[in-house]
Amino acid sequence: MADEAGRPYAETTFRWIDPGHRYWLDRSLALHAPLLTAARLMAEPFFYTQGRLATWRDTGLLSGIDCRGLLAHPMLGDAIITPVHLPRGLVGALVWCSSEAIGVERVFAEQAEHMQALATRLVATHNEARGRPRNATVPQTLTRREVQCLRWAAAGKTDSEIGIILDVSVSTVRFHLRNAAAKLGATGRAQSIQLAAGLGYVGAGAA
C-alpha cells in the first residue's frame, strides 16, 4: 500500500519492528511468508507466538502452517494478524507486531474484533480511493441461469457438458455465459469465472 506519490506506507507511516528490513521490496514475500500464507487461508484474525499460530477456535488451517523459521527472527516476539478479504478476490492483511512477548493471547481476546474492523476499514477505503480494482463497477445482477452456467464452467465443464447438465442447447449456454461476462465487465471465460468467484456467485460459499 502506497500514498499518491507512490511512497509505501511501510516507509512513511507503518514502520516495521526492524527498521532496516525493507520487506515491501520483496516481490515474493506473500508466497513464502507464513503469516501472509495464513492470511490467505483465514478470514478471521489470528495471532503468532513462540513459533505457532492460533485464533479463538481450533482450526487445522493454522496448525498446518510451519512457523518454526520465525523463531530465528531476532526482533519478532508476538503478533496479531488481521486478514482482509474483499470482493473480486482482493486479499490484504494488517500485522501488529511486538519485538518481545507481550501476552498476546490476552491482547488478542480483548482487541482482535476491534483490530479486524479497523483493518477492513483501512484496506477497503484505501483500495476504493486508489481506484482498485481498475475495472471495478457495480455489476448488473446475474440471472439464475447465468450463475448456473458459470458454476459449471468453473467446475471445468465444457459448453456441451453444461448444456446436457442443464438440459439446454449449447447456443443457450453460450448466450448465458456471454451475458454474464458483459454484466461482470469480463473479457473472457476465465475472467468471468474469476470475477464471479470474487463476488460470491461461484464457490463453496455461493448461495
Question: What would you note in describing this structure?
Answer:
With 207 residues, the chain is an alpha+beta fold. It contains nine helices and four strands, in the order H-H-H-E-E-H-E-E-H-H-H-H-H. The protein has helices at residues 9-12, 29-32, 34-41, 60-63, 104-129, 144-154, 159-166, 170-184, 189-198; strands spanning 46-49, 52-54, 78-86, 90-97. The protein has a four-stranded antiparallel β-sheet.
Question: How far apart lie the N and C ends?
Answer: 32 Å
The CATH class of the largest domain is Alpha Beta
Total DSSP helices: 9
Low-confidence stretches: none
Total strand count, please?
Answer: 4
How many structural domains can be distinguished in the coordinates? 2
What percentage of residues falls in helices of 4 or more residues? 40-55%
**What is the CATH architecture term of the largest domain?**
2-Layer Sandwich
By helix and strand content, what is the structural category?
alpha+beta
Gross geometry = elongated
- The ordered H/E elements are HHHEEHEEHHHHH
**Using only CA atoms, what is the Rg?**
21 Å
Q: Major sheet: order of its strands?
A: 2-1-3-4
Instruction: Summarize model confidence as the mean pLDDT.
Output: 86
